[in-house]
Task: structure prediction
Amino acid sequence: MLRTWVYFLVVMAALYLAACLVLFVFQRSLIYFPQPRAETVPATLLKLSVDGVEVLVSSRPHAGPKALIYFGGNAEDATYNLPSFALAFPDHAIYLLHYRGFGGSAGAPSEAAIQRDAQALFDQVYASHREVTLVGRSLGSGVAVHLASERPAARLVLVTPYSSVLELAQQQFPYFPVRWLLRDRFESWRYATHIRVPTLLIAAEHDEVIPRASTERLYRHFATGVATLRVIPDVGHNSISESPQYLKLLGEGL
Result:
């Protein structure tokens, strides 16, 4: 009987370790869901070379000091934002980053690679536009807040933001040592404390992906008076941009 129990425990431990290994190896396929770029949306396509990798940016050029750089979600074709942004912000040049592996960009996505690409894009945009607003949605909120902590952004807007991807992963996989397995943590709370520019956090009332508690934890890490939290009623994580209030609130951040 004892031998049977020992054998059972050994098998269960082996299965658990195998599950941990699968999570570790395939973790990025659970975070990033690359999408093709919409060819039907008129856009000027820019090409950035970062670390020898060609990264694409859909844009609407505009002369003047103002620019908007947008970082989308983990399963988003950022191109679809261009028509509405162009109408809502006619005095801004608009730049929509396609993460590595997304929208025709080469390479594979990772937190470190996306952050390097974001910095390269900012530096190029800032050379022509000295008033740059960063907008990040969902996964992109982590990209935007990190970039704002390292570059002279004029404003920061975070849509359906989280405190950290690590926190979300721990909630989704409570029986696994996620802290030791996760490579791309996107710990936005660490960078929020360094932000000094006006920041707007926009949450969805019925967000089924990012718990409100996570957004509120992030909000509390900003210095007093820096950030404002607004909630759009009757929308979810993916439908928030369909609300008439979305572009209106976004405009308040600009």
